[in-house]
Amino acid sequence: MVAGPDLNQLVTLDVLLAEGSVARAARRLRVSPSAMSRALARLRETMGDPLLVRAGRGLVHTPLALEIRERVNHLVQDAQAVLRPVEMLKLNQLVRTFTLRSSEGFVENFGPALIVRVGRDAPGVRLRFVQKPDKESTPLREGTIDLETGVVERATAPELRTKELFRDRYIGAVRMEHPLSQGEITPLRYAGGGHIHVSREGVERGPMDEALGSFNLERNIVTIVGGFSTAVALARVSDLIATVPERHTGSLRAGMFSFPLPVPTSQFTVSLLWHPRLDADPAHRWLRGCVHDACVEE
Question: How far is CA 214 from CA 23, 178, 186, in A?
């Protein structure tokens, strides 16, 4: 029987790659420099790569070491989380930064209530919001983000955990003095105005154009933007029409005229997504509840 890899080497590898120094790694792991040098030699033999090479008076990482450094760190953190005894969560003592990735507009609409709730329950917790340029699941898999909001689709990684936040639908939004703020809004009047089309990828057509096509109508798309809050901001100061999610942009549309679309459209579900490695984490579970409550109470 062939012996498998010594998983104890992962901790040593993680510290060596993080410190970039045999002496510093030895101090961190409380072993002698000679013992750490022998450990590095074993790692080099196991991996077939020098990992750290001499450059002047110090050591530098090889390309392989740079490539695997972050992944090794995540593996060690995951293992430590599995072996760590479950403790009662003390929110008033929790010090942690959570990264949430969401589409443009979500933070503006739901962020204030979430920040107030988190600050009240756990003053040591910091939220970091990042934009969602695509629907790639890699950041959740690699642990660079903790939570994500969005619509679950076929392309969504099957292992991800999800929780429904709310149902939404598309509506129209214009400035209060816009011609559409008066009278019946028919498919013809709606299609005849100048439109703002929202697309992260910059594509020129969407579901609304397909719905209008069944009436033999076509939108006059004047401009294409990458997010809903940008579309609302433009519509507020122009005669353009923004077609945006109702719940997602509730606070952004304050002072504007909003109306149901004059063509049939489908509702969609906005969900919370996270990686299963964090499913049982008490602090992460608490944060998921905070996000859910912020969306329900909005």
Answer: 71, 26, 14
